[in-house]
Design brief:
Layout (H helix, E strand, L loop, with lengths): L2 E5 L4 H12 L3 E6 L6 H12 L10 E5 L11 H7 L4 E5 L11 H22 L5 E7 L26 H20 L3 E6 L1 E3 L13 H14 L3 E5 L6 E2 L1 E3 H13 L6 E4 L5 E2 H11 L2 E5 L10 H9 L16 H6 L9 H23 L1
Parallel strand pairs: 1-2, 1-4, 2-3, 4-5, 5-6, 6-11, 7-10, 8-13
Antiparallel strand pairs: 9-12
Helix pairs in contact: 1-2, 1-7, 4-5, 6-11, 8-11
Length: about 375
Amino acid sequence: MKTIVINGANGYVAANFINELLLEDFKIIALVRAGKIPAQERMINMLSDLNDGKEFKSDKLKVYDYSLVDENFSIAEEQLNEIFGSDVDYFHFAASLKYDFKAKDEIFQTNLDGVQNSMRVFSKFASKKSRFFFISTAYSSGIMEGKFEEKFYDNADISMFRNYYEQSKRFAENLIRKQIEEEGLNGHILRLSQVVGNNKTGVTKTDYGIFDFARRIQSMANRHPYRKVRVKVNPETTQNLIPIDTVVSYLMQVVKISEIPVIMNVVAKQGIRNGFILSCLSELVPISLLSLPELEVSEMDSYERIISIGMSFTASYTDTNMNFDTTKLDEVMQLEANEASEESIRKMLEYFLDKASDKKARIAS
């Protein structure tokens, strides 16, 4: 069984992936930034949360504290030789999820310098048969018309993107492209759209995207119940939501298939209407959300402005119907249909909001 090396291992998608790898007896090296909590503890806490506190297999998991942009990750060469001692699949998950101008330096340091250093360490210590997988975003597409194909696109000015996060991911993809073409890196790019909860159970342990929006709406509804709030959202456009269990199924196939395309768009085949998400939230919390695409800030009341400010990231994705090519994904991946549906998204939102309420109640007590 091959060794799987994962950086940014305690993130939502990476940890779910590790959880499944452990069930199938893969040997896993998890690279985790320590911070105030030791790396081992951070990783175990995340896996424990995913398993609702129940025991889980961890005998084949090794956790290392690392620093993404430092030479050799601040890991001793002896340990790196051990980590990369056999043919490995290396997954680069580490990323800054910030997006605005104030965080530009941090975004580019993590998402560009970090990727460059990650390839440097991989090229120095990994075998020729080892594979490098970069977890990118389907929104490296930026602002474009037509279908976003499974190919490289040239770097572009920030005006062609919604935010610096998207631009940094496009730039990072092209760093990998250069390394593939000039140095023979065995590199691959997996572009994920917005990852949500478990499609079968509804269990949702991410607060990203629509769930961040849901939490903000719940907070307002708790403080100012039964209000009617207009939001600047096109009800007919869609969100590309891919369930975490679907993503993990794709990732598990990646490690088991020897020949993988250089780029795959790991996305949902159909979107979920914004109008449905708003109506669902209006049913789950005591508030009425009214979609008004042409609503201007000058026309908003104080409550609507608060929601608008909270949507500074998500708002740029509420007037799009993204068209992603999945030809290469479909050629190599054999996966039963597990698309997010209105029913499953409702279950996820209900679970997430219930958990958020439980957490608030515990803190209050």
